[in-house]
Input
Amino acid sequence: MTDFLNLLVSGVALGAQYSLVALGFVVIYRATGVINFAQGGFCVLGAYLAYNFHNTWGVPFYLALVLTALAGAGVGALVDVTVLRRFVGQPPFVVIMLTIGLLILIEQIVPSVWGADPLPLGDPWGLRTVSPGGVDIKVSDLWTVGIVAVVLAGFFAFFRFSRMGVAMRATAVDLEAAMAQGIPAHRVYRVSWSIAGLVAALAGLTLAAGGGGVRLDIELVALTAFPVIILGGLDSPGGAVAGGLLIGVAQVMSGKYQPEHATWLGQGFPIVMPYVVMIIVLLVRPYGLFGQRKVRRI
Amino acid sequence: MEATRGGDDGAVRAPAEAPILQVSNLAVAYNESVLALRAVSLSVPAGAVVALLGANGAGKTTLLRAVSGLLGVHGGTVRQGAITFDGEPIGQAAPAAIVKRGMAQVMEGRRIFGELSVEENLRAGAFTRRDRSGVRDAYDRVMEMFPVLAERRRSQAGLMSGGEQQMLAIGRALMAAPRLLLLDEPSLGLAPLVVQQIGEVIAEINRGGVSVLLVEQNANMALGLAHHGYVLETGRIAKSGTAADLRADSDIQEYYLGAGGGDGARRSFRDLKGYRRRTRWSA
Ligand SMILES: Nc1ncnc2c1ncn2[C@@H]1O[C@H](COP(=O)(O)OP(=O)(O)OP(=O)(O)O)[C@@H](O)[C@H]1O
Ligand SMILES: [Mg+2]
Output
């Protein structure tokens, strides 16, 4: 039982990271109708920026965390203003290729700036654990869950209640009608890219913390977040969170129990498991768990 | 329809001040090739209701897009001519800047934000405004004008009836506190009773001091409300005059009002547009 609780907490922590990355995908998809393949690259940049803030420039860790989030938002906004702004109105295919190009660019820049070897983040959590009631829990997992909870609460409050949040949702429904209300589409795009950059940077930081290390393959988290968004519904921020948690927990659980009870599934099963869950869910609900079947009166 | 307002007394009311909207010699092309408007001139006197009639594809919506800065979304460009709002050129202005100056549009087909609540739709309409108390006043006025919306503030806009959605679209435009309101076929696909309600609403908005450019195929309704009218035909202004003159015009009677006028005409518009008959009316 303690074993199970133990796994549950680390599953939720992993899922929280997936949720962040998936939310970034969803926000960009809703605003622009494309999948941002550079999202994993944003995560990597976040981790390295956190490394610089904390280790190179000696900023206290929790302040570095806040600065990393802001820098991530800045990276997102910068990418929008310098590159993507010029391609508004182009076919989605063009923009998708651009994001792939961006990812390749980041993959080249990172090793040449920071080197190819993993770097220690130097977070105060490290590998420490606490054991309330005999359940061993990594401190970094607790912090991850807490940080993600705060960010998500902030996002949903913004998305639901703020003027810009309403404008973002209106734009996702009908771009031209939103423009006719005086909502400037370019600002909606910029805010969306900033949010995507912010959540990605924090995801990267938490992945590098807790002994994970600052490394290029943090970007692989995006590969798992991909089935998460398909699962949750491409256009549903709530689905991104639910899907992330589901896959995180399922992945950690299967990592533990599958080798013991279902060896025949092979060694790499936890890696493909998210895709298996995705396919099963899509068979039942083709628009994802939370995706909308369009309601519209004609 | 007569309950709204006669065109005759309207013509008397039309003030002689400088026009709030002036379109001069406007030509618009889509994709650098298809000319949708050729040398169109039209003006809306401040405080007036001006009707713009025309068959499908005449270029009515294109004219409104040009005025509100939305041509770019459709790959359209202004090839010649000028548009001034309140005496200032707005030909190059962004839609948001135009809304801020006091022009709002009710788009063809309502185009409400279906996944958002009624209240959120109205908030979106007030996006350009910073004065909170002014927005609250506008909100209260919209709720007063459209009791249906007040009852359904929290419900999802896409689930409302066509008539209610049209009311919402008009309410949303009013949230910007416009001095000029553009309406693109607000009677489209609505039952006669609802069309009459919409007509009354437009008259009330105009009495409140808002100038109106009303695009319609329902000439009966439009000329009943308007002081002046224009008829657009394949991108050109074919006729213009006071509402009374246009109603008396034999061509317009034949084409838009039907030989006998009244309901026969309305049915033929529907056939023209290929409307599906609606089965349920809750507005
Ligand atoms: N996005 C577009 N791209 C290319 N051509 C267009 C576009 N929109 C309209 N047109 C063309 O411009 C002309 C005028 O169209 P417009 O929509 O302005 O007519 P309308 O008078 O509003 O018609 P309706 O009564 O059907 O709404 C038509 O020939 C139409 O095919
Ligand atoms: Mg039209």
User: Anything to note?
Assistant: Residues 1-15, 259-283 of chain B have pLDDT under 50 and may be disordered. The first helix of chain B runs from residue 7 to 13. The beta strands of chain B are 19-30, 34-45, 49-54, 76-85, 88-89, 103-106, 180-184, 211-216, 228-233, 236-242. Chain B has two domains: 2-102+178-272, 113-177.
